Description:
Blueprint: H1 3-15, H2 18-25, H3 29-43, E1 48-51, E2 54-57, H4 59-85, E3 90-95, H5 102-114, E4 119-124, E5 141-145, E6 153-161, E7 163-168, H6 198-204, H7 218-228, E8 232-235, E9 244-248, E10 255-262, H8 268-281
Parallel strand pairs: 3-4, 3-5
Antiparallel strand pairs: 1-2, 5-10, 6-10, 7-8, 7-9
Amino acid sequence: MELRTLRYFVAVAEELHFGRAAARLHMSQPPLSRAIRRLESDLGAALFERSSAGVVLTPAGAVLLDEARGLLDQVERAHVRVAVAAGVAVLTVGLLGDSTDSRVARLADAYRLRRPGVEVRIRETDLTDPTCGLHAGAVDVALTRGPFDGTGLVVRELRADPVGALLRDDDPLAGRGSLKRADLVDRRWFRFPEGTDSLWQGFWSGGEVREGPVVRAVEECRQAVLWNGTVGMTLVGHPPGAGLTVVPLLDMPPSRVVVAWHAGDANPLVQSFVRIATAVLGD
Length: 283
């Protein structure tokens, strides 16, 4: 039973879909299916019940998932301990202006507990670089939000947060229970500088080209609304600040929290961080 095969199995078991698992593993579906079939043959047990809707774990599959996660965690821990002993256990993590978020604090606690001895260096970026320095080679892994150009990267979604319109308290629309983008069509929006990732810019501009003040940081977004009466988008669950309110936008997709790293990077510190972040921050 090879570690690679166990990683394949865990991906299918977590996604409960061969296509999504193959995409997550950056491989085509046929070899993944063959590998799982061989694993089932070697073990003499069916691990999944297959149907047109996807797959579900059998009782044997549930047992193997628990064991496989433990084995892979032990392997990662061994790699990390060797790196610590060799004095090379340094991981640079990019954060998108959210290092004060309580959930990031929980992740820091969990990582310190499970990977003592690893030196974590944090690089916090503003809203103009959603990859937090990944494309520039400045970080090993990023905890950020999509969408953005993922060329050369592996991007794993952790959860999805609803978004809303950020307005002044005295804005005529502030008392509404919900809004749609059409309600804001004639308004000035805060926007990111030219050259910002187009997918990222397009999402936070509601899919339109907007006119309005240029911002680079979360607090600049709030101040642009407070001082100018402009509008923009923010997370429904984040406190907007004094004098501001957030009204849910019904026709906007959620903002997706993701962890991203360089494709092909087998650094055990990166893989360990991804697994812990998925466990702590996932839905």
